[in-house]
């Protein structure tokens, strides 16, 4: 690595005082300010998209850091976890204030997600991750197809579920015409999908925001805006636990995580303003496109044996 007066010629990409082995970069010239600015712009877009879809900023950030900036995967995931916490902290607070997020549902379903993540971590050495990645990729593509369908009015007008009523999960959220009430259905099915989402997260080291949204939207018949906003809250809880592990192993570097966190926080706050005024049909389309791309990425990684 050759350090010049104003620029750094990168065989490795590193800030002053940061070990050069942390980041891999193609041969080229880029100064620290340019790198930080590009990373901040990319992080802001990731936070914006993650806030709208309930998937977290890591959906954009991990591919951005590893493919474009050639950051080592472990440090990219560490920065991504920080970004997810920032997305959740920024957007979840705003969504809760607006009346979108359902904290009771989120905390209840987090129990199943956490237990699934523990099982996934245990099975890491026993099941080939590549095979699971292929199944997960196919599942995401199917989920994209299912999430595009508009819910029939007969489902919206179904009587309340006794278990959801007992757990006080039914609530309201602001709509264009005012407050709109909704009921929650098939709580055991939602728990089962959340358990599977947590297991996949622990097994593959990925976020499970896509399956969380699908579980709430399709299985539990929760309105799409409530599903995405509640998922934003939930992924922050999960990421906080995972971030502790990465921090203890030295995979969260402040020089990389700081611009990521600031960009994602601003992007997520922008997303909260857009979601309130966006039609559900448009949100479903964006969500479907993102998880189709995720599904294809998982398939390619699984077939290539990159897990």
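^ Assign residues to that structure.
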């Amino acid at each position: 690595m050759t350090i010049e007066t104003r620029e750094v010629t990168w065989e490795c990409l590193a800030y002053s005082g940061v070990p050069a082995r942390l980041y891999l970069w193609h041969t080229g010239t880029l100064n620290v300010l340019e790198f930080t600015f590009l990373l901040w712009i990319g992080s802001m877009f990731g936070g914006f998209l993650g806030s709208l879809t309930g998937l977290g900023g890591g959906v954009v950030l991990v591919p951005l850091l590893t493919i474009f900036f050639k950051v080592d995967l472990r440090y990219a995931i560490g920065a991504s976890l920080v970004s997810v916490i920032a997305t959740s902290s920024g957007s979840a607070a705003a969504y809760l204030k607006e009346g979108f997020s359902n904290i009771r549902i989120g905390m209840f379903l987090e129990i199943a997600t956490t237990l699934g993540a523990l099982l996934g971590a245990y099975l890491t050495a026993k099941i080939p991750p590549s095979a699971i990645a292929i199944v997960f990729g196919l599942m995401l593509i199917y989920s994209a197809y299912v999430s595009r369908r508009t819910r029939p009015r007969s489902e919206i007008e179904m009587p309340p579920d006794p278990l959801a009523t007992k757990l006080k999960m039914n609530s309201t959220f602001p709509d264009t015409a005012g407050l709109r009430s909704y009921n929650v259905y098939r709580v055991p099915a939602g728990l089962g999908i959340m358990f599977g989402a947590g297991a996949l997260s622990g097994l593959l080291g990925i976020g499970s925001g896509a399956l969380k949204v699908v579980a709430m939207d399709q299985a539990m018949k929760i309105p799409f805006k409530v599903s995405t906003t509640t998922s934003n809250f939930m992924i922050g809880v999960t990421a906080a636990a995972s971030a502790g592990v990465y921090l203890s192993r030295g995979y969260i570097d402040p020089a990389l995580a700081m611009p990521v966190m600031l960009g994602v926080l601003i992007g997520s706050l922008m997303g909260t303003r857009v979601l309130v005024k966006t039609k559900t049909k448009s949100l479903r389309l964006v969500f479907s496109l993102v998880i189709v791309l995720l599904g294809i990425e998982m398939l390619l990684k699984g077939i290539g044996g990159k897990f």
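The chain has one domain: 31-304.
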